[in-house]
C-alpha cells in the first residue's frame, strides 16, 4: 500500500502522530509543499503584487458578511427595503456587517482593477499564462454579475432603475431580445419575481462559480509559476544543486508574511471607510438608493456605482453620429490595416467579408444595439490581450515609448470615461466620452502593430532586485 | 492511448450512443428549469386594463397611471404645445410614426399628434432605449440639451429627447418613439388603458 510507504511527519511536535495519520489518507504534506512551502515565487515582487491576495481576502469578507446579512434580509419586493433598514437600525451590529459588505463590494473592484493593471504593466498574461489570465477574466465577469445582482437587493430607486436599464440591454438583441429580457426578469417589468431570482443568483449561483474559478486561477498560477516585474522566467536560471529557481523564494513563509502585512494595511484603510465614510460621498452607496423603489418615477440623476461607470459611458457615447462617423470608418480602416498586414489570401477574404457584414449592420441596426455591443466588447476585449500584445518583451520596464504612451492614454481614457459615467449627459460630455471610447478601443485594436514596432530594451538574465 | 486496432468497435459505439442519449436527457432536463423562469400565470394575469379619470386634468398638466407595472402618461396639451409639435418634424427620427407601427402606434394614433383626441396625449412613459422613465420638460425655450426646445420629455439616464407627441429626436440613444398603449374613451372624461374598444 502506498500510504504505508509515506514517511512520518516530523517537526510538528505533539501533532506528528495526528498529521502522519492524516497524511497517509490525504495528500496533506504534498499539497502544503507544492502550493506553499515549496512553491517558489520570484523574489522581486513589488507593491503591485499585494492585490491578488487582497482580492482573495475581500472575497472572504464578502462571503462571511453575506451569510450574516442573509439571516435578516427578505428577498420580497414588499419587504426588502424595510428589511435592509431593519438590519441597519435594529439588528445588533447589523449596520457594521452591512457596511462591511457594501464597502467590501467597492474594495473588491479596487483590488481586482489594480491586480489586472499589474498584469497589464508587467505582461503577466503572456505565454504560458494565457489560461491563467482567462480564468482571471472569468472571475472578473462573475464579480460584475455578483455586484449587479446584489445591487438590486436593497430595492431602492437606484437598485430598481439600474436593474431596469441593464436587463433592457438584452432587449436590444435583434429578434430574441424582448423575449430574453422577459425571461431574465420573469415578468414584463422588474418586479418581485426579478428580486427573488437575483437573490438566488447573488447568494448561491454566482458565488459557487466564483469560488470554483478562484481555485482554477490558483491552480493555473501554480502550474506555470508567478511572473514578476521584470517579466522574465525565473525557471530559466535554476540552481543546479537544488533544482530550484535561483531567484525564487518559498511562498511560505516569505510571501505569506508579506501578504499578511498587506492585509493589515488594507484593514486600516477599509475600517476608516466602514466606520467614517461608508457611503464614500455617494460613490459606494448612492443617495437615491435610500429611497424605496418606485416603478413610476426614474430618479432625476441615475448612474451606476463607480466600478461600472467606464462601460456605462461607452454605452451612452454610442449615438447614431458616433456609429456613422467613428465606428463605420473605423471598421473600414481597421479591415484595410489587417488586409495590408496579412499576406495570405484566406484571412484577407475573411476580414473583408466580416468588415462588409459589420458595415451593413452598422448602417441598418439601431445605435442602441451597437451601444450594447460596444459595452460588451469593452469588457470582453481583455480576454484577447495575450494575443494582441506582440512585443518582444513582457514588462513595461523594457518596452518602448509607444507602449508606455499607449497604456498611459488608456488609463486616462478609463478614468475620464469613469468620471463621465457618474455625470449627467450634455453635448460636450458626450463628445468627451466618444473620444474616450475611441482611445479605449484603439489601445487594444492597434496593439498588435504598435507593440511589435516599438523599440524595446533587452530583458535581463536575472531579476533586478535591490 | 490504446492502439486503434485494440478498440472494441461494438463497445465504442455503445459508449457513443450512451453519451448521446445522456446528453439529450441533460438538455431535456434543462427545459423545465429554464421554463420555470418565465413569467408565471399570476404575473401574466396582472395585465388587466385600468381606467383613468381625466376630468380634473388642467391644460398643460400630466397625469400618471400605472398599467402593467409601467407608468402611463396622460398629458392635456395646450394649443401652444400642439403648435410646437407641428414645426419640429425635421429634428425627429421618426416624425410620421412609421417604425414598428403595429407595436408602438395603434391605428387610431397614427396621426400628427399620435392620439385619438389631439388635446390628450396617452403614452407609456418608458424610454425606448433602456427603459428609464423620462422627465417632464414641458416649458418651451432654450435648454442645455436643445437650444430650440418646444417642450417634451428628457430622459435622465442617457439623454434621449421626446416631443410632446412622444416622438424621439434624431441622433439620440433611443431608437423609437414612446409607445402609445391601446386605449379608448369610455366617456369624455374617462379613458380605459389597455383595451382598444370596450369588450374587444
Average the pLDDT over all residues of chain A and give the rounded result: 94
Percent in strands of chain B: 15-25%
Overall number of strands of chain A: 4
Uncertain spans of chain B, ≥5 residues at pLDDT below 50? Answer: none
Number of domains of chain B: 2
Give the neighbour order of strands across the main sheet of chain A: 1-4
Q: What's the architecture of the largest domain in chain B in CATH terms?
A: 3-layer Sandwich
Q: How many angstroms does the end-to-end distance of chain A come to?
A: 49 Å
CATH C-level label of the largest domain in chain B = Mainly Beta
Low-pLDDT stretches of chain A:
none
Shape of chain B: elongated
- Kindly report the greatest chain-chain contact and the residue count on each side: A-B, 42 and 34 residues
Query: What is the count of DSSP helices of chain A, taking H or I runs of 4+ residues?
Result: 19
Quaternary state, please?
heterodimer
The chain-level structural class of chain A is mainly alpha
Give a nutshell description of this structure.
By secondary structure, chain A is mainly α. In chain A, 65% of the residues lie in helices and 2% in strands. Chain B folds into two domains: 2-38; 45-193, Rieske Iron-sulfur Protein.
What are the salient characteristics of this protein?
heterodimer; A: 466 residues; mainly alpha; two-stranded antiparallel sheet; two-stranded antiparallel ribbon; 19 helices; 4 strands; B: 200 residues; alpha+beta; Rieske Iron-sulfur Protein; 2 domains; three-stranded antiparallel beta sheet; 9 strands
Amino acid at each position: 500500500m502506498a500510504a504505508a510507504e509515506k514517511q512520518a511527519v516530523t517537526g510538528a511536535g505533539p501533532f506528528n502522530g495526528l498529521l502522519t495519520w492524516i497524511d497517509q489518507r490525504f495528500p496533506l504534506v504534498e499539497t502544503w509543499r507544492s502550493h506553499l512551502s515549496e512553491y517558489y515565487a520570484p523574489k522581486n515582487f513589488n507593491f503591485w503584487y499585494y492585490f491578488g491576495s487582497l482580492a482573495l481576502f475581500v472575497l472572504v469578507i464578502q462571503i462571511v458578511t453575506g451569510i450574516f446579512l442573509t439571516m435578516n434580509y427578505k428577498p420580497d419586493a414588499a419587504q426588502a427595503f424595510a428589511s435592509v433598514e431593519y438590519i441597519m437600525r435594529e439588528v445588533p451590529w447589523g449596520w457594521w456587517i452591512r457596511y462591511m459588505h457594501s464597502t467590501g463590494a467597492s474594495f473588491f473592484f479596487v483590488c481586482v482593477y489594480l491586480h489586472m493593471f499589474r498584469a497589464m504593466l508587467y505582461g503577466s498574461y503572456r505565454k504560458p499564462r494565457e489560461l491563467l489570465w482567462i480564468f482571471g477574466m472569468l472571475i472578473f465577469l462573475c464579480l460584475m454579475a455578483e455586484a449587479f445582482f446584489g445591487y438590486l437587493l436593497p430595492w431602492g430607486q437606484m437598485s430598481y432603475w439600474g436593474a431596469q436599464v441593464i436587463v433592457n440591454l438584452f432587449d436590444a438583441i435583434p429578434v430574441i431580445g424582448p423575449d430574453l429580457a422577459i425571461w431574465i426578469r420573469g415578468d414584463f417589468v422588474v418586479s418581485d419575481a426579478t428580486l427573488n431570482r437575483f437573490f438566488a443568483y447573488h447568494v448561491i449561483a454566482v458565488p459557487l462559480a466564483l469560488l470554483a474559478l478562484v481555485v482554477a486561477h490558483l491552480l493555473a498560477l501554480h502550474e506555470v509559476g508567478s511572473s514578476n516585474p521584470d517579466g522574465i522566467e525565473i525557471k530559466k536560471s535554476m540552481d543546479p544543486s537544488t533544482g530550484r529557481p535561483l531567484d525564487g523564494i518559498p511562498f511560505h513563509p516569505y510571501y505569506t508574511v508579506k501578504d499578511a502585512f498587506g492585509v493589515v494595511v488594507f484593514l486600516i484603510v477599509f475600517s476608516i471607510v466602514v466606520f467614517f465614510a461608508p457611503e464614500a460621498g455617494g460613490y459606494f452607496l448612492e443617495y437615491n438608493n435610500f429611497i424605496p423603489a418606485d416603478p413610476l418615477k426614474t430618479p432625476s440623476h441615475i448612474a451606476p456605482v463607480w466600478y461600472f461607470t467606464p462601460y456605462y459611458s461607452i454605452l451612452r457615447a454610442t449615438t447614431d453620429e458616433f456609429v456613422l462617423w467613428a465606428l463605420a470608418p473605423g471598421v473600414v480602416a481597421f479591415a484595410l490595416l489587417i488586409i495590408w498586414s496579412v499576406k495570405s489570401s484566406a484571412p484577407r477574404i475573411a476580414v473583408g467579408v466580416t468588415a462588409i457584414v459589420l458595415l451593413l449592420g452598422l448602417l441598418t441596426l439601431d445605435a442602441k444595439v451597437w451601444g450594447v455591443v460596444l459595452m460588451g466588447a469593452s469588457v470582453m476585449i481583455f480576454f484577447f490581450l495575450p494575443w494582441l500584445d506582440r512585443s518582444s518583451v513582457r514588462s513595461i520596464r523594457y518596452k518602448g515609448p509607444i507602449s508606455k504612451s499607449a497604456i498611459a492614454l488608456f488609463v486616462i481614457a478609463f478614468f475620464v470615461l469613469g468620471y463621465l459615467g457618474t455625470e449627467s449627459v450634455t453635448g460636450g460630455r458626450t463628445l468627451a466620452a466618444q473620444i474616450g471610447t475611441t482611445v479605449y478601443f484603439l489601445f487594444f485594436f492597434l496593439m498588435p502593430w504598435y507593440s511589435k514596432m516599438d523599440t524595446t530594451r533587452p530583458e535581463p538574465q536575472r531579476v533586478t532586485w535591490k | 492511448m490504446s492502439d486503434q486496432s485494440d478498440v472494441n468497435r461494438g463497445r465504442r459505439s455503445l459508449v457513443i450512443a450512451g453519451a448521446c442519449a445522456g446528453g439529450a436527457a441533460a438538455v431535456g432536463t434543462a427545459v423545465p428549469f429554464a421554463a420555470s423562469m418565465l413569467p408565471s400565470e399570476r404575473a401574466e394575469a396582472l395585465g388587466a386594463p385600468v381606467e383613468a379619470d381625466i376630468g380634473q386634468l388642467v391644460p398643460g398638466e400630466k397625469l400618471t397611471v400605472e398599467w402593467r407595472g409601467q407608468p402611463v402618461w396622460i398629458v392635456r396639451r395646450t394649443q401652444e404645445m400642439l403648435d410646437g409639435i407641428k414645426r419640429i418634424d425635421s429634428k425627429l427620427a421618426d416624425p410620421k410614426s412609421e417604425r414598428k407601427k403595429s407595436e408602438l402606434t395603434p391605428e387610431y394614433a397614427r396621426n400628427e399628434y399620435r392620439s385619438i383626441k389631439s388635446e390628450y396625449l396617452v403614452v407609456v412613459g418608458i424610454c425606448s432605449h433602456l427603459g428609464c422613465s423620462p422627465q417632464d420638460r414641458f416649458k418651451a425655450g432654450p435648454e442645455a440639451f436643445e437650444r430650440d426646445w418646444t417642450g417634451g420629455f428628457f430622459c435622465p439616464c442617457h439623454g434621449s429627447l421626446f416631443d410632446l407627441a412622444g416622438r424621439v429626436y434624431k441622433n439620440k440613444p433611443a431608437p423609437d418613439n414612446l409607445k402609445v398603449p391601446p386605449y379608448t374613451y369610455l366617456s369624455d372624461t374617462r379613458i380605459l388603458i389597455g383595451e382598444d374598444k370596450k369588450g374587444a
